[in-house]
Amino acid sequence: MNSTTESSSSSSSSSSSESSSDKSSSSSSSCSSGCQFLYEIGEKLDKYVITKYLSSGTFGMVLEVIDELGIPYAVKILSQTDHTEVEVLKQIQQFDPFGEAGIVRFYDYFAWQDYHCILLERLGLNLHEYLQQNSLNITELQSIFQQITTSLLFMHSLGITHTDLKPENIVFSHQQKHLVKLIDMGGATQANEHHSTVINTRQYRAPEVILRCDAWDTSSDIWSLACLIVELYTGSVFIKVGNNDLMHLAIIQSIFGPIPRWMKERSKIKTKLNSLPYPKPQLQLGQLIKDHDLLDLLTKMFCIDHNQRIDCHQILLHNFFQKKFI
Ligand SMILES: Nc1ncnc2c1ncn2[C@@H]1O[C@H](COP(=O)(O)OP(=O)(O)O)[C@@H](O)[C@H]1O
Ligand SMILES: [Mg+2]
């Protein structure tokens, strides 16, 4: 399953009741793919008891459940079978048996009525929800950036591209306030697997994906990560664009310079590239990011040529992570 959407983070489909009171009567919530699961708080879900509605994404509704010992979990309920997510979670677990990679822990997968349930570690608010009430200081941003890059380095070392990095898919730990974890492996793709033509939520999509010039690879996550970091820094989506590839490419060029000729040549939409629209004037990265090291790092992550883009290992060695902010 691929979790590609055209929604923007600010008009996200993600909805949460973390801060509101528990729903106590019969409830049904839906995710944007239309999965509608009817449940009641206190009702059984297999051998678990439903205790709270947590959130919904593009494909899944997520509820809190407890087991017979009262231990809480999150259960992601899907209306379609999605073996990809489970297979990727299992593979990650195999190579990260102690859960040190900063990726949501997977516990079980079972069918329930017409639904498929993925039992996961119970986490807290996602970054999108968090940013609606709070902002991050530079130290917090540095820590979150480092944690996500470390998790991504682990995934990339296994040859897996996440393909849907965005604030909704980064979630705070429920217990340890400053820890974040990567979630949502619904679109995660192995290097040797079929690569969907289009990946990512629009605003986080890399130019090589929009251009359809080659099979994309793990470097597409680095572009998405850069978009995500600018958003964490400024508090709003960086590349604001609707569902329009040509306008998206025009905006990218107006911020980051021309698309290399070889990428245009290999593009499957090459014939349309001669008539790109004129975007509204865009804020340049240097106008938004005041820290010089962060600006330098982001510039290397926003390299349009994905073969030249910095990777996770190089990101973690960058000066920005050597700095202590007071
Ligand atoms: N383990 C978890 N603990 C707490 N909340 C979670 C957990 N997994 C997902 N969520 C919440 O549910 C939302 C949707 O889950 P996600 O796996 O991203 O589904 P989708 O594939 O539909 O986007 C997330 O944005 C997050 O807020
Ligand atoms: Mg998601």
From TrEMBL:
Stored SMART domains: S_TKc
GO MF annotations in UniProt: ATP binding; protein serine/threonine kinase activity
Keyword hit for Kinase: yes
Protein kinase domain boundaries: 48-321
GO cellular component: nucleus
Low complexity composition bias: residue spans: 7-33
Any GO BP annotation: regulation of RNA splicing
UniProt keyword terms in alphabetical order: ATP-binding, Kinase, Nucleotide-binding, Serine/threonine-protein kinase, Transferase
Annotated stretches, region: Disordered: 1-33
Pfam family, any one: Pkinase
Protein name (Swiss-Prot/TrEMBL): Protein kinase domain-containing protein
